[in-house]
Amino acid sequence: MRSDWDDDRLLGALSEAIKARQAVPSWFIETGKNAFAWHNIDAELAQLTYDSNVDRREAAVMRSETASIRALTFTSDHLTLELEVTGNSLLGQLLPPRSGELEIQTRAGEISTTHVDEIGCFSVDPIPDSPFRLRCRAADGTDVLTGWITI
Amino acid sequence: MRDDPHVVALVSRASEGNQDAWHEIVDRYAPLVYTICTRYRLSNHDIEDVGQNVWLLLVEQLGKLREPAALPGWLATTTSRECLRVVTAANKAERLGTGLDDSVVFVDETMIDEEILVAERNAALHAAFAELPPRCQRLLSMLMSDPPHSYAEIHAELRIPVGSIGPQRARCLDRLRRSSILAAFGEGEAKIDIRGGEPGA
Predict the structure, then answer these.
(1) Is residue A57 very low, low, confident or very high in pLDDT (cuts 50, 70, 90)?
(2) Beta-carbon pairs below 8 A across chains A and B
(3) Complex ipTM, two decimals?
(4) How large a percentage of chain A has pLDDT more than 90?
(5) Å from B144 to nearest chain A CA?
(6) What is the SS3 assignment for A37?
(7) Which of A104, A99, A67 is nearest to A89 (CA)?
(8) Helix, strand or coil for residue B200?
């Protein structure tokens, strides 16, 4: 802080700081605090590396016929998940291909499971209507968790 | 402020599983995340969505942040990216063929940088205020209330003689000004000053 600020200015700044904190709704703070429940989940994280919604943004300036299939890619060091929305289903492919189990987790903590076949394909049907994330436990021991997905 | 040892310690403790440290991180920086969301004019529903993603990403990144002291910058960048995703998805759903929506254009890096500085300054002011003696906290709180309390009301509430309120205000603010937390803040401040600073200066 500037040591040359006079009293009025310092009090004004302090007042702004307190107001800024009071302006944040309590539900927003709660959401943040509750997130700590996810600390130390023992899985490798896969980052979103492609989202057709975002990557088509530039293309949409020049072409308007881009509203097509929603596709997402999550990448971790050991595994890539490619996802594609087809109707009410989410079709997925593990790369490199391998079998395993796929968990679909919602923020409310609900978990459902689906099978990943030998060539690494799976389907999530229906697509959850609230944000969800996927945890893939491959047969070879690879354990990967995606970021949150909203379709 | 980039090497604020307090932020480094908070991140370190939280990454070791200390829930209190995590709560303090959220208390300190929720205004930053929230303000950026409002700059993107998101609905409450979308703000909650972005907030969830940002905090969860941070939980997962706690032990991996290369520069824990740069946490405000990381939060601002991540929030901005998540907001942009929500806005882009919404635009896509609402229109076909109109191209980019202008509503996101006004959020630029300069604004984000300013929000980071304000957030760091506010966090420092909060922390310094919390270290003041309780009588100073009470007096300054009454002076900052909106509408402000009269000296007569302050006298009735805090039992400070009216003639002592002015000098005590000055002493309390001087304590605040000399706080080591605020002293550590100096350099980044100059950038905010360019924009005119606070009213009443």
Answers:
(1) low
(2) 155
(3) 0.81
(4) 49
(5) 6
(6) helix
(7) A104
(8) coil
pTM value?
0.70
Q: In this complex, do A39 and B89 lie within 8 Å of one another by their Cβ atoms?
A: no
Contacts of B128 in chain A (CB under 8 A): 1
Give Cβ neighbours of residue B149 (< 8 Å, ≥ 6 apart).
B142, B143, B157
Structure token pair of residue B19: 């829930």
CATH number of the CATH domain containing B62 = 1.10.1740.10
Are residues A95 and A119 in contact, defined by beta-carbon separation less than 8 angstroms? no
Please list the alpha-helical segments (H only) found in chain B: 5-15, 19-39, 44-61, 71-94, 109-130, 134-144, 151-158, 162-177, 180-183, 186-193
Peptide bond preceding B72 in cis form (omega within 30 of 0)? no
Q: What's the CATH number of domain A42-146, 2.40.128, 1.10.1740, 2.60.40, 3.40.390?
A: 2.60.40
